[in-house]
Please model this.
Amino acid sequence: MFDSIIKNGVIVTGSDTYRADIGIQSGKIAAIGDNLTVDNAEIIDAGGKYVFPGGIDVHTHLDMPFGGTVSKDDFATGTVAAACGGTTTVIDFCIQPKGKSLKESLDIWHSKADGKAVIDYGFHVAITDMTDAVLAEMKEVISSGYPSFKLFMTYDGLRVEDDVLLKALLQVREYSGLICVHAENYFVLKYLVNKFLSEGKIEPIYHALSRPALAEGEATGRAIKLAQIADAPLYIVHLTCNAALQEVVRARDMGSKIMAETCPQYLLLSEDNYREPDFQGAKYVMSPPLRPRENQEPLWYGLAHNQLQTVATDHCPFDFKGQKDMGRESFAKIPNGAPGIEARMALLFDRGVNSGKITLNRFVEITSTNPAKIFGLYPSKGSIVAGADADLVIFDPKLKKTISKTILHENVDYTSYEGFKVTGYPVLTMSKGKVIAKDGNFVGQKGAGQFLKRKNLMII
Ligand code: URP
Ligand code: ZN
Ligand code: ZN
Model:
C-alpha cells in the first residue's frame, strides 16, 4: 500500500515536532504513524534527521529579460539548484511585455518553464502595462490559477503610478487575488542616481547610496495606505529595512491585511559588501539594495514575531563576467539581481535556528507553510499531513558545509555566500514521492515539475 516509507525521522511542521514514519503512495502522503511497514516499499532511513515539508520559494526570476540581459538560470538549471537546496516549489514572476495581454505574457512564461522545470511551479503576473483591457483581464487570470500580481513602484519601463496600483488593489479585492508590491520611491532614486553619475560617482556603492532605506520606507507606507483605501490585502516583496518594517508593523497593528517577505541577503549581507575592491561589489547590486547592518536585528525580530511572514530569495542571477561587468562605467548599468535559490534553507537554518533567532517550527513556517498559505498552495504544499503532496526534505542538522560556488548547482559564476560555514543541510529532497536530490546531487528528471493552479489565498 506504500511505494516508500520514510522511517525514524523527526517530523517538523510549522506547529509540531514529533517522531513518526511517513508512508508515501502515488506521490502523496498516505499515512503518518509509528512503525509503518509494508512489503516491497522502498525504505528511506531518516534516523537522526529532520523531515520538513519541501521549501517553497515564492520569489524567483528564472530566464527573465532584465537590465539589458537575461537572468542566467533557466527553469531547468534554476529548479535543479532549488531541489538540491531543499526547495520543492517556486513561484516565478511572469513579466508582462509592453502591449501584450496577461494571457499572452503567461503563454511566454509557460513556454520557458513547461518541460524544463524539475519541481512544481506557479506564476505571479507582473503588470507593467495597465490598460482597461488588462484591468478587466485580471478577473479571468485570477480564476485561471494565477491569483497574485506584482506591481513595481520603481524601474523605468516597469513601474506603475499610484492610481494604477489603487485600481489593481480594488480589482483583487473584488476577485480574491493579491497584489505584491516592489516598494521604492522612483523619483527619489532617479534624482540621486543622476546626481551621483553627474558627479562621476560610478562605483557599486552608489547603487546603495542612491536608493536610501527611507525611500523604501516611504513607498512601503504609501502602498499600504493605498491598500487600506481599497480595503485590499497587500504583500510587500523583498523588504530590506527597519523603515519599511515599521510601516508593516503599524498597519498590521491597525488590523490591515498587510503581509511581507524578506530575503536571506538582507539578513546576512550588508551595504559594506558594495565596497569590496575590484568591482566585486557589483555582485550584490540588487534592488532594493543591501542595507547598513543595523537593519538586520529588526528583520530577525520581525521574522520571529510574525511581523514578517516569509523568506524568499528574489533569485535573479547574473554572471559577474559578461553581465555584471556591463556596469563598470556606471553602477546604473549593472543588472539588478543576485543568486540565492539553493542556499536559502541551509542559511536560514544555520543563522536563524542554530543561533536561536527563530525556532525550528518558525523556520518551517517562514520557508514553507506561510508561503503555501499566502499564495494558495496549502495544504497540498507546505504541510505534512495525509493527503498532501509528498514534497519532503530530509535535513541533517549536524552536517557541516561551506557554501561555495563549487558545491552549488546555480548556473552563475559566483555566490554571494562564498565561504559561509553552515551546520545543517538537506540530504534528500522528494517531489511528489520521487527522490530528486540526494547528498548534494540532482537525481530527478527534467520536465517532471508541474504547473500549479493556485486558489484560496489566505491572509495571515
Ligand atoms: O534586483 C532585483 N531585485 N532584481 C529582480 C527584480 C526585482 O525587483 O525583484
Ligand atoms: Zn522587485
Ligand atoms: Zn524580484
In short: The mean pLDDT is 98. Residues 213-230 form the longest helix (18 residues).
